[in-house]
Every structure is written in structure tokens, then in C-alpha cells.
Design brief:
InterPro entries: FA_desaturase_dom, Fatty_acid_desaturase. Keywords: Membrane, Oxidoreductase, Transmembrane, Transmembrane helix. Its EC number is 1.14.19.-. It is built from 21 helices and no strands. It is an all-alpha fold. It has one domain.
Length: 363
């Protein structure tokens, strides 16, 4: 237990070499069987659904933003801006993630335009996330190689609480922007981002700073915080739902296993959350087949669900499962949600996959 608790989760530390030695880096992952013809159908991208959902998002932002504006200066501003912030932040993050994959629209420039817009809204640059996310999908929850592991084992509750409103990320966000604006990179960024994209990263940061400086200037001119309350700050005060949704994706599941069924969680939920979250509740399906557009994930789920652990019955059920796993991991960093441990043991016993012989018995 003490050895596990001291693992280095950075992608430049000793765990990286261990993962390479175990054959876990850039390895072949298990994929649920889907007929080739059906998979080609599921991978078809269409402009219509993504355009409809993006326009609906803008309409909801306009309506809730207007209500928030009317409430400014009263106690009603707290719930009004909380609602606006959730719609702003949750949808911006999920659409930013999807457009990073280039899958929502059939037209490529539409994907890139949405990606850059959402990157600006949530203050996370497009270029560094693009390459960080490539690594996340290539080496999902492989310690020492995946830069997007949300919480190491054992978890630190203070850090998790700070994530609710991105409190731990505020200083780092602006420090990163100014560092990039002056053409500087961390060693981790040099590891992930190819030199050919450095220039794009630097100019993105400069544009972010200039535009947000103009918004701050508008705040001083109007002697009101309202401009930032509508653009920029919602990425922090409205982030609490996104934090909860993010936590259900991988926490409490296996590390260092080449099977998305063991390290990614899917759950069912209502149409409102599915809309805001851009169907990322089907997260295991997304990781296994990342080029399937979000609007086809429910159909993909139906194709492969018999070959996967049962999906959590609701968002609250998935969140309870996640929180319980984090609680157990305080004292036992090897803890895995029992449903997934049993599923892994059944896989090992049935010899239905070949890669366990290389990475070890999941039990």
C-alpha cells in the first residue's frame, strides 16, 4: 500500500518508464465487436444535429443570461447566474471536448471554429489540450503517461473540493496564459506538443489576453462586473456540475489496464444532462470508439452494452459510486468499484481477451 501511495503521476517521472516496460504505452486496446458496416454507419458525421444543438445552447445562454441580467443587484442573481454559469460551463467544456475530436460537424472548419470559441470561453487553450487529449485517449489512465488523470491514489479531498469551482486552477490558468504569451513552455508541454504547434499555442494565449483585457476594461468603463460575469467567470463559478460529471468518467476504476470497459464509466441520465454534457455520459463508448459523433453514442451503446459492465442507472448513482470509491481509496489505494472488479475477474477467467497475459491478472 505504501508503495502504491507514492506513485508519481507526472508524465515525466519514473512511472513513465515502468509503463513502457510493461507494454502499456501506445498499446493495443480491446474493442467490443461491432460489424464493420454498422460501425461505418455510426461514424458518419452530420452538420444538422451539431448545428441544432449549438444553436439551442446559444438560445439557452441568451435566455438565462437575460434573466441573470434582470436579477443583477438582487438576491435572485445568485440562482440566476448559477443557472447561466452551469449552462455556459458544462456545455462549453463538453462541446470543446467533442469538437477537439473533430466529430460533431461534417464540415471541418465548423468543428475548429466551435473548438476555438469554447476554448476561449473556458480559458483553456485549444492547442495544448488537443495534444494532451490525444495522449489521454492513447494511454487512458496509464500512470506515468496519461496527463489527464483527474485524481491520484490515494485521493486528496482538499484538491477535489477546490476542483468544484476550479479554485485550484485559477492562478495556474492565468500563469499558463502569460507564460505562453511570452513564448515559454513547461517540460511537460514540450513532451506533449510538437514544435510545429508552438507558434499556434503562443498566439492563442496572446489573443486570449488581449480580448479578456478588453472585457476587463469594459468592466472598468461601465463600473460593473457584469461583462466578466457573462464571459470568463462562468467558467469558474459555473463549473460545479462539470466537476461532478468529470469525476464519474474514470475515478474508482482500474489504472494500467488496456481495456476501456475497466477504466471508463458509462451511466444513464435524463435528456437535460445529456444535452448539456453532449452525451458524454456514454463515456466508455466514446473512449473505445472516439471517432463516433456524440449524437450516435446512444446507438453505439446499444450495439456493445452486452459486452460491457452494466451502466450506472443514473447520474446520481454514478456519482455515489464515485464518491464511495474515493472514500475507500483513502485507506486502500488499490480499491476498485466491486462491479468492475468482478467484471475484470470474469474476463480473466474466460480468457476472452489476450492482453491480460501482458499486463497482469486484473484480480
Amino acid at each position: 500500500m505504501s508503495e502504491i501511495s507514492k506513485r508519481d503521476y507526472s508524465i515525466l517521472g519514473p512511472e513513465r518508464e515502468k509503463a513502457i516496460a510493461k507494454g502499456l504505452v501506445s498499446a493495443e486496446w480491446y474493442k467490443c465487436p461491432v460489424p464493420r458496416k454498422r460501425m461505418k454507419e455510426l461514424m458518419v458525421r452530420r452538420n444538422g444535429p451539431a448545428l441544432r444543438d449549438t444553436l439551442l445552447w446559444f438560445i439557452f445562454l441568451a435566455v438565462t443570461g437575460y434573466l441573470a441580467y434582470l436579477s443583477w443587484g438582487t438576491w435572485w442573481a445568485i440562482p440566476a447566474f448559477a443557472l447561466y454559469g452551469v449552462i455556459y460551463s458544462t456545455s462549453a467544456v463538453s462541446k470543446w471536448h467533442e469538437s477537439c475530436h473533430g466529430t460533431p460537424f461534417r464540415t471541418s472548419w465548423m468543428n475548429e471554429a466551435l473548438y476555438q470559441l469554447c476554448s476561449f470561453l473556458i480559458l483553456i487553450q485549444a492547442t495544448n489540450y488537443r495534444w494532451s487529449h490525444v495522449r489521454h485517449h492513447t494511454d487512458t489512465i496509464i500512470v506515468g503517461s496519461d496527463p489527464e488523470i483527474m485524481e491520484p491514489r490515494p485521493p486528496m479531498w482538499s484538491r477535489l473540493i477546490k476542483m468544484i469551482f476550479r479554485f485550484g486552477d485559477i492562478f495556474g490558468t492565468f500563469k499558463s496564459l502569460f507564460r505562453h504569451a511570452f513564448g515559454r513552455l513547461t517540460n511537460t508541454e514540450k513532451e506533449l506538443i510538437p514544435p510545429s504547434d508552438f507558434r499556434s499555442l503562443f498566439w492563442e494565449a496572446r489573443i486570449f489576453i488581449l480580448v479578456y483585457a478588453a472585457i476587463i476594461g469594459l468592466c472598468f468603463y461601465t463600473q460593473s462586473l457584469l461583462p466578466l460575469m457573462f464571459v470568463g467567470l462562468p467558467a469558474f463559478y459555473g463549473f460545479f456540475l462539470m466537476t461532478a460529471l468529470n469525476s464519474t468518467q474514470h475515478l474508482g476504476l482500474y489504472e494500467d489496464m488496456l481495456d476501456h470497459r475497466l477504466c471508463v464509466r458509462t451511466f444513464y441520465t435524463n435528456p437535460i444532462i445529456r444535452f448539456l454534457y453532449t452525451n458524454m455520459n456514454y463515456h466508455m463508448e466514446h473512449h473505445m470508439f472516439p471517432m463516433v459523433p456524440y449524437y450516435n453514442l446512444p446507438a453505439l451503446h446499444q450495439e456493445i452494452k452486452e459486452d460491457c459492465p452494466a451502466a450506472a442507472s443514473s447520474f446520481t448513482a454514478a456519482l455515489r459510486e464515485t464518491v464511495a470509491a474515493l472514500w475507500h481509496a483513502r485507506k486502500d489505494p488499490t480499491y476498485v468499484v466491486p462491479k468492475y472488479r468482478i467484471f475484470a475477474e470474469n474476463i480473466a477467467q474466460s480468457h476472452s481477451t489476450n492482453h491480460y497475459a501482458r499486463v497482469g491478472d486484473p484480480s
